[in-house]
Amino acid sequence: MLKPTLVSPFPVRYEARFEHLEDDEAATEKGLLETLRGISEKTATATAEGHGLRSVHAKSHGLLRGELRVLTGLPPVLAQGLFTSPMAYPIVMRLSTIPGDLLHDRVSTPRGMAIKVVGVEGERLAGTEGQVTQDFVLVNGPRFAAPTGKGFLKGLKLLASTTNKAPGLKKVFSAVARGAEKVIESVGGESTTLKSIGGHPETHILGETFYSQVPMLLGPYMAKLSVVPVSPGMLLLKNAHLDLHDKPNGLRDAVLDFFSSHSAEWEVRLQLCTDINLMPIEDALAEWPEAVSAYLPVARVTVPPQTAWSEARSAVIDDTYSFSPWHGLAAHRPLGAIMRLRKSAYEMSAQLRASQNRQAIQEPRSLDDLPD
Ligand code: HEM
Is 141 in the pocket of ligand 1 (CB under 6 A)? Predict the structure, then answer.
């Protein structure tokens, strides 16, 4: 039981001792790279002309252009990095689901949201000097699938073993996993493994709240980030059932349908680390308690009506963009083992698909040329 009187309301300043290498981190990194590369090599053989895809989050359901506006009057602890001044930036948003292959949407898996903010000035993370982007790469649940990279590698190997399996078989597998997930949830639990292999509820992707799950620096402090739907049309979509039975691209169709006549608005929120014991950096399974440190609004993302997915946009965003928590400002340096392991994984996956597709990865300086 937490004792609120013992909990500091003030953000903890980052100290290097909060981060430490996990056991066998180098071997885990090697295992992750091998497994991810294996997935991409397999999926390329199943696509037209050996088309290269992301090792995970291969299928996009929305490729959107919008704006991120930093709120005015933020308190100094929150007014850090990207959120320092009340500026508006163009953004591109990619909605995805986690597998590395392009599945029928009946195989319902957790969803991803990647945001690339463009035109950001400030001291950069090493390796991104000269660029002007800040990426946020999020999934629709508050905590990661495993406490450590080593634990995650086990689950990833299971996911990899289902790559390119006969789609019919996967759909049956998914229905079974969804049934099992409902049973587990009815007794108050949740199985990330079952969800990741097809046990996710068949809900509308625009009703989801997305989370960074693992922390980043916020200037001298540490924070997690969430992106929450707030416009009335989107609130109606929270937990809304979507029939994906005979709709291989049902999620994308639903996103296209929504943006044909609606705009969308999300709130960007930050959760400050106010107690390093309750809100650790190196345990990715630890959900930071919102009762102790609430997610606080720092910006709004608005996306106007538009064609929410097109082949032309896919050719640019799916094939030539790379979203990574390591693209951004030094003030938002990713923290902890999961974040460290993501660096080389995202670089490898992006470079592999670039070489498979004989196309360079580009980091945009403006979105003026983004096609509709
Ligand atoms: C050790 C842990 C992780 C590894 C090894 C990993 C690996 C990867 C890789 C290789 C990609 C494809 C990159 C590309 O080709 O551009 C990717 C994409 C993605 N990952 Fe992770 N990931 C990890 C953790 C996470 C976490 C914690 C989140 C969010 C909470 C996340 C969300 C996403 C999303 C949304 C995408 C799609 C990005 C896009 O639209 O381009 N991943 N991940």
Answer: no
